[in-house]
Input
Amino acid sequence: MSLAIVHSRAQVGVEAPTVTVEAHLANGLPSLALVGLPETAVKESKDRVRSAILTSGFDFPARRITLNLAPADLPKDGGRFDLAIALGILAASGQIPADRLDTLECLGELALSGALRPVQGVLPAALAARQAGRALLVPRANAEEASLASGLVVYAADHLLEVAAHFNGVTPIEPFQAQGLLRQVLPYPDLADVQGQAAAKRGLLVAAAGGHNLLLSGPPGTGKTLLASRLPGLLPPLEEQEALEVAAIQSVASQSPLAHWPQRPFRQPHHSASGPALVGGGSRPRPGEITLAHQGVLFLDELPEFDRKVLEVLREPLESGCIVIARARDKVRFPARFQLVAAMNPCPCGYLGDSTGRCRCSPDQIQRYRGKLSGPLLDRIDLHLTVAREATALNAPLAGNETTQRVAAQVAEARRIQLKRQGCANAFLDLAGLRNHCSLQPEDQQWLERACERLGLSLRAAHRILKVARTLADLQPADAIGRAHLAEALQYRPGNQTG
Output
């Protein structure tokens, strides 16, 4: 047969569109043409594949070979198509049966010796192959990652000779079985390690229960970073689909999705991070910190030290839960449904309002420092907490009632109520959800409107107060939002913010 078709997958963001590798042999002077918008690494696959076929003991056809990677308008890069190209040439030249390639997709880079090398972005391809109803053939180093897609038949091989022997029926490759892979959960830091800070722990509970964004403000050494690092342990475990989304992002970002499967990510970029580092970018768009924090926590310590333009790019993802990176040739959409936790000092020296009275900052210095943060960004943070200095007690026992296990149980019950009622956490309620699930008594609504007017709060801030109040009611639990819930929710909002 002079024509063979092999199925593979490209990588575009966290998507894996199908690519059909067509190999055609014709009479004429020996040549090899590769078409279908291949980039440099794909063009170089011609030489890798030729050497791999010859060193594996197969015949490289001395004919006019045309390789087409369809669709032609989809850019292809990397060495992920090497195996598919080699199998297409072997099938077109009759060295392996072409009919056995229809139910299979394959990924893998070839060494000159014919050995299979791992590629990145295997998990999105595995999920797409499962949806298409095909099996997946990958290098053995990628097999565990591909097996995260439950229900998918995964074949793993180390060499092109193994693959050829499988298709020729000489030595069939058995489907890969993961051994002790899943649910290797590492323990989270315990909330009981945080000494004192009852009000801050209460705010952390509310943030976890409703998925709300959180800002911690206080002098140095009061435990802001310690509190933030405890938040992931309070959040409910990831559902399988959510865990696969997180693992797929880590896969395309060249990180091992198996290292912390299936835990929520906790990302802590340095304040010198650039805009592209935070939201993603590059000529070939790659995920940034907000995408790597998808379904987890993004912690920004020393918030005013970040460049203001960098922080402003967070505004849209905080609302939409995704980021679209546009380039001249294409657009790539990355998910970014993260929970923002930020920490800052109240002034440049850090000791404004501290009981020691050490602050020597002038009002102008304080204003300039706080002016680095825009009102619209602060407006999108539901809970603003002041973390005060606690009395020093080095030998005080750390254990207490507020352990991670106990607080996580409260969070899980509140989330269960929310999912049953509206299908999402309270922080993600839209306007229709607010009308249906956050209704108030007329007198309470008038009271809240007057309070927002006195504090100079925007309509967005008022909506977020309702969401926080709904979370406080769920923690009680109570069917309706009461005046006490609204009053506590208002305590978490600073005044005079618009945007």
Notes: The radius of gyration is 28 Å. Residues 312 and 377 are 7 Å apart (CA to CA). The chain has three domains: 3-167, 191-390+397-419, 429-499.
